[in-house]
Design goal:
The complex is a heterodimer.
Chain A: E1 3-8, E2 11-12, E3 18-25, E4 33-40, E5 44-52, E6 57-59, E7 67-72, E8 77-82, E9 91-104, E10 107-115, E11 119-123
Parallel strand pairs in A: 2-11
Antiparallel strand pairs in A: 1-3, 3-8, 4-5, 4-9, 5-6, 7-8, 9-10, 9-11
Chain B: E1 4-7, E2 10-13, E3 19-25, E4 33-38, E5 45-49, E6 53-54, E7 62-67, E8 70-75, E9 84-90, E10 97-98, E11 102-106
Parallel strand pairs in B: 2-11
Antiparallel strand pairs in B: 1-3, 3-8, 4-5, 4-9, 5-6, 7-8, 9-10, 9-11
The chains are: A mainly beta, B mainly beta.
Chain lengths: 125, 107
């Protein structure tokens, strides 16, 4: 079963760039999507976006102008960059695997079944 | 975006009780509904996907149902380890969105 572990800076100043990387071990990186989700007391759980095994991305429109998610298949890693951070970006950030179960093609169930333990990112001057 | 609501926001029940949590979507989402359990300091854990399919390894006392806009998560014979916050999440369309959570406390 794949396990995920992420790393990156935990304390940022306003206007800096948040950069996190998540690495998978113990399983295949293909045939899945890879998501970033954040959780803050004020906004609950918020899906940031995903990258699929082909490198295509899908972002939450609320963050799209500031977000880049990329995939490094050679190292089984994917990354999140969030530009111009503000205090409201303070949250626990999770990376997760998105899996699909086909119902009736082209329809499928999509769910996030493997998560890392999360990392706290604080934005403060 | 599809808005998800949950009720109640908090409930307290005794070991052995049957507990029901409700989730409602702002538009029809067929059965593209997932449930997660989160304990303090941990990541969410997938319990149910596709409204009613139990994720591998999840105890059979958990069950999900519903379609369209209204969904339920039921915990039969509540156990002490079920103390957690439960979230629904729609996968009908992006951006994927979560409910605000229901905190379950054991009396």
């Amino acid at each position: 079963q794949v396990q995920l572990q992420q790393w990156g800076a935990g304390l940022l100043k306003p206007s800096e760039t948040l950069s996190l990387t998540c690495a998978g071990s113990g399983g295949s990186f293909s045939d899945y999507s890879w998501s970033w989700i954040r959780q803050s007391p004020g906004k609950g759980l918020e899906w940031i976006g995903e990258v699929n095994h082909g490198g295509s991305t899908n972002y939450n429109p609320s963050l799209k102008s500031r977000v880049t998610i990329s995939l490094d298949t050679s190292n089984n890693q994917f990354s999140l960059k969030l530009n111009s951070v503000i205090a409201a970006d303070t949250a626990v950030y999770f990376c997760a695997r998105g899996s699909r179960e086909w119902v009736r093609p082209p329809y499928y169930y999509y769910y996030m079944d493997v998560w890392d333990s999360g990392t706290t990112v604080t934005v403060s001057s | 975006d599809i808005q998800m609501t949950q009720s109640p926001s908090f409930l307290s029940a005794s070991v052995g009780d049957r507990v029901t949590i409700t989730c409602r979507a702002s538009q029809t989402i067929s059965d593209y509904l997932n449930w997660y359990q989160q304990k303090p300091g941990e990541a969410p854990k997938l319990l149910v996907y596709g409204s009613f399919t139990l994720q591998s390894g999840v105890p059979s006392r958990f069950s999900g149902s519903g379609s369209g806009t209204d969904f339920t998560l039921t915990i039969n014979r509540l156990q002490p380890e079920d103390s957690a916050t439960y979230y629904c999440q729609q996968s009908y369309g992006t951006p994927f969105t979560f409910g605000p959570g229901t905190k379950v406390d054991i009396k």
